[in-house]
Structures are given as structure tokens and as C-alpha cells.
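An instance follows:
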Amino acid sequence: MFTGIVEEVGTLVVREDSSDAAVLRIRAQRVLEDVALGDSIAVNGVCLTVTDVTDGVWSTDVMAETLKRSSLGGAGSGDAVNLERAVTPQTRLGGHLMQGHVDGVGRILDRIPGEHWEVVRIALPPQLARYVVEKGSIAVDGVSLTVSAVSAADLPEPWFEVSLIPTTLRETTLGAREPGAPVNLEVDVIAKYVERLLGGAR
């Protein structure tokens, strides 16, 4: 589990592709302070397992399914990535509970700068729109955010908006994401469980 509070921005230094998977090697610092093989680290919101650590670079295996269903499929050497270690029982829950299981890939539509924050509008797959509500939580590239506005759910390309404070703009990759850029989305898992339970009751 994760909370969506990004600990640092790392750098993807090597990507090694095979027929049905890829190995990513990521340079980091803070998330490696107490790392052990087998630990989980979220990379742009995708939960991945540490398989090796050498000279400040950690490695992870990414299966084809993950590459297909997340923006990591298009990630390349030199890309900046949001990193967060899995929570512990002593961790402060500063964001919201996240699994690191990406539900879909969205696309940044627009950025509206303000004096102290920036409003970002993001398109999302139509099948995810019903899980996104105003003032609810959503993870965008692993960053826990509060939804500030939503479109009608039945639009051909529904969207939602989030407001990014200076800290988020400065300390995560979202500060540099331009319109058109893909972003990983994870909706609130509670909404999915409620839908499932209600559906089973009918």
C-alpha cells in the first residue's frame, strides 16, 4: 500500500526490453536509504519490486501487462519518475490509501496557472469516470490529489481537474507534464468495492 506522497523524483537510467517484459534501472537516493531486496516501490504510481541495488541504482522487472496498461510502456532512459516506498504501520497517512495498481492512462488536456497554484485538466478513460467525484481522491502518476471539478460522466472524453500547489509542482514530475502527456491513474479503491457490493446485492 502507498499514500501518494512522493518521496523523491528519480531518473530512469536504463531500460532493457525482452519479448514479454522489461527491466528498469532507476537512480534514486531517499527511497534507497533502508531498502531491501523484495521491497515495493511505486514508480509513477505503479507498484514494483526491488530486484537489485547497485551504486545508487535499483532494478525492477516489469511484466508485459504492466507495460501495456500504464505509461511505463512508453518510458525511456532519462525520464524522471515519481518514487514512493510502501507504507509501514508507523507511516503517517498524508494522502489516501493506494494499491499501486493502475486503473488506466489519462492525458493532460490543459494547464491553467494561478498566482499560487495551477489547475490541471486531465482526460480519463470513459469506464473510469463513474469512480471520480468532486472532492474525492485520485492518484495521478502516483501523486495523491483531490478532485476539484469533474465533467459529465457520459462525455465521449470525460475529464477531471486537480489543483497543484507549489510543493507538488516543484517536487513531483507533474510540474513538468505538458498537455498531451500520458499519466497513470488509480481511482479510489473504496468506490470500486462499493460498486461491486451493490451490484452483487441486486
Remarks:
- The domain at 8-85 is CATH 2.40.30.20 (Elongation Factor Tu (Ef-tu); domain 3).
- The chain has a mean pLDDT of 94.
- The CA atoms of residues 66 and 159 lie 23 Å apart.
